[in-house]
Write a structure and sequence with these properties.
Layout (H helix, E strand, L loop, with lengths): L10 H9 L8 H11 L4 E5 L2 E4 H17 L7 E5 L4 H12 L3 E4 L6 H11 L3 E5 L7 H6 L10 E5 L9 E2 H4 L17 E7 L7 E6 H13 L9 E4 L11 H8 L3 E4 L5 H11 L3 E4 L1 H13 L10 E4 L6 H11 L3 E7 L3 E4 L14 E4 L7 E5 L15 E6 L6 E2 L3 H7 L6 E9 L5 E6 L4 E3 L2 E3 L1 H8 L5 E11 L3 E10 L7 H10 L10 E4 L13 H9 L12
């Protein structure tokens, strides 16, 4: 039995976007096949093995789809995908779409209990996982969990190495005769992919997206950053299995007929070498990755590269000083993207808009109704009434990219979706007189110190402007007196390490009230990243609560 996935948007509204051409109204595999027919020898994927054209990729896709179909996997089934950024991940994505099945990608590095939770709640019938990746053995780990997953019928092991007993080999499925395979033609408004978002829930949130929401809504986001309308070449520094990475196969390939340039593991040197060798038009990464690349560029130990069309930064905004440094170093616009798996997207575009200026919070650009209409609403009200221009409220979104629903989580649907389909983001913002969206904080992402709320994002924004700070993340840590205190985790810009007093003086000068100043400091050479490529706040919090040797802490006050 497949998991139930209801569309929480009014049917007439979803259909209107398809009728007016905002969404292509084709399933992802049909879109890809149309691109293959138009330009069969165009390069689809560049990875560690080299180049793969649209025709060769399609041959592998059809073989895998036929092999999966022979094992009873078909329309409406959920297929987990836990693979690094390489051609196998793309083949698995498209083969799942060709079957009319639903892809559930999640990055390698998710713990066993988390992976089991995703597969169990989604009722996944199969999972395709790497034999080995950087010392881990994902396929074997998932096999060991089969007793917890009654719906799981197959574990498919991909890549070099010994296939664990009980698993099917992806290489064997790729040798299936696909001559008689007939692709499914699912309704474009039905589920195609499940995005995973850690959010603030006890278990990772899963968000179901339709073919039209991916190729249409998310596809329109990337289209706005392709000024010449030519097929893009996108260097993905983030995992394709992340929410940000959903701009890969469904958008870059199926919607825009572009090329994916993939690194199976991010390092700043590998990223710069790929930039030089493959001349991508777009680079997609998170702020920490961009800062690490800038540090490498500063040493001069990298090959020369052609400036891309844009560097697109998601996960959190890149501070203004670093964004300007990046603009000069990469020779192109730096696009700050405000978005989430839950269904919101807004960005600063190619016109050189400043992400930060004298207004409140962070400027996120002009909302695009072809992607997501964005409104500011009164918080905690049944009908989410819209507030006047310039007034702070909760950011809500609804548009062509709006997902169907949360997966196996009616409580989340009730909490974050309105009766008429709007998505509650949990973010606080305003729309200014120019029509731009500004992000000012989060309803839930706060540190509560002695009953007073502190927004870590607000403090990070100020600390990022300190001349001694290269990168910074703020987290709350438990305190027996105050409940929580704020800690700053800082990557120094050079050999001189800032002190708490340095940071406090800087925040004073910027007018940030004293109660919001960090009271603990941890300096690190680089910020740890989660499997999805974002700063790992949980690991930093563990280091701080474990009294790491480089931490500084003032006396309690």
């Amino acid at each position: 039995m497949s998991v139930e996935l209801r569309d929480l948007l009014p049917t007439a509204l979803r259909r209107a976007w398809a009728v007016e051409g905002t969404c292509p109204d084709l399933d992802l595999y049909s879109l890809y096949r149309a691109r293959r027919i138009t330009d069969p020898h165009h390069t689809a994927v560049v990875d560690a093995k080299g180049k793969l054209c649209y025709t060769a990729l399609d041959r592998q896709v059809r073989c895998l789809a036929a092999g999966l179909a022979a094992r009873g996997i078909g329309t409406g089934d959920v297929v987990g995908i836990q693979l690094p950024n390489n051609r196998n991940a793309v083949v698995a994505d498209l083969a799942t779409a060709a079957l009319g099945a639903i892809a559930l990608p999640f990055p390698i590095g998710r713990g066993g209990s988390e992976a089991a939770s995703l597969l169990r709640r989604s009722q996944a019938v199969a999972v395709i996982a790497a034999v080995e990746y950087r010392g881990s053995r994902p396929a074997a780990d998932l096999l060991a969990l089969r007793h917890e997953l009654p719906a799981l019928r197959a574990v498919i092991a991909a890549g070099p190495g010994d296939v664990p007993e009980g698993a099917l080999a992806l290489a064997e499925l790729l040798r299936t005769d696909a001559e008689t395979f007939v692709p499914a033609r699912p309704d474009p408004d039905t589920a195609a992919r499940i995005l995973v978002s850690s959010g603030s829930e006890a278990e990772p949130k899963m968000v179901a997206y339709s073919h039209n929401a991916l190729a249409g809504g998310r596809g329109n986001f990337l289209a706005s950053l392709i000024p010449d309308k030519q097929p893009p070449r996108c260097l993905f520094l983030v995992p394709l299995a992340s929410a940000f990475g959903s701009n890969g196969t469904p958008v870059t390939l199926a919607r825009h007929g572009g090329t994916l340039v993939l690194l199976d593991h991010f390092t700043p040197q590998a990223a710069l070498e790929a930039l030089a060798a493959h001349r991508p038009t777009h680079v997609l990464g998170v702020p920490t990755m961009i800062r690490m690349m800038l540090d490498r560029i500063a040493t001069g130990a990298h090959p020369a590269f052609t400036p891309p069309t844009a560097v697109i930064v998601g996960g959190s905004p890149l501070d203004e000083g670093t964004a300007e440094e990046a603009r000069l170093a990469f020779g192109c616009p730096i696009v700050n993207l405000y978005g989430s798996a839950d269904g919101v997207n807004c960005h600063t575009g190619l016109t050189g808009e400043r992400a930060h200026d004298d207004g409140p919070g962070t400027r996120a650009g002009l909302p695009d109704p072809r992607v997501a209409d964005i409104r500011i609403a009164v918080t905690d009200t049944a009908h989410m009434e819209e507030v006047p221009t310039g007034t702070v409220g909760e950011i809500v979104a609804r548009g062509p990219m709006t997902p169907l629903c949360y997966v196996a989580a009616p409580d989340l649907d009730a909490r974050y979706r309105t009766a008429d389909g709007w998505v509650r983001t949990g973010d606080l913002g305003l729309v200014d007189q120019s029509g731009a969206l500004r992000i000012v904080g989060r309803l839930k992402d706060v540190v509560i110190r002695g009953g007073a709320n502190i927004s870590p994002a607000e403090v990070e924004l100020h600390l990022a402007t300190h001349p001694l700070v290269r990168d910074v993340v703020c987290v709350g840590i438990p305190d027996p007196l105050m409940g929580e205190r704020l800690a700053a985790c800082v990557v120094p810009r050079d050999a001189r390490t800032p002190t708490l007093e340095d940071l406090g003086a800087h925040l004073d000068a910027r007018g940030l009230e004293r109660r919001k100043h960090p009271e603990h400091l941890l300096t690190v050479d680089e910020l740890p990243l989660t499997p999805a490529g974002k700063p790992d706040r949980a690991r930093l919090r563990e280091r701080l609560t474990g009294r790491a040797t480089r931490e500084q802490s003032p006396a309690a006050n």
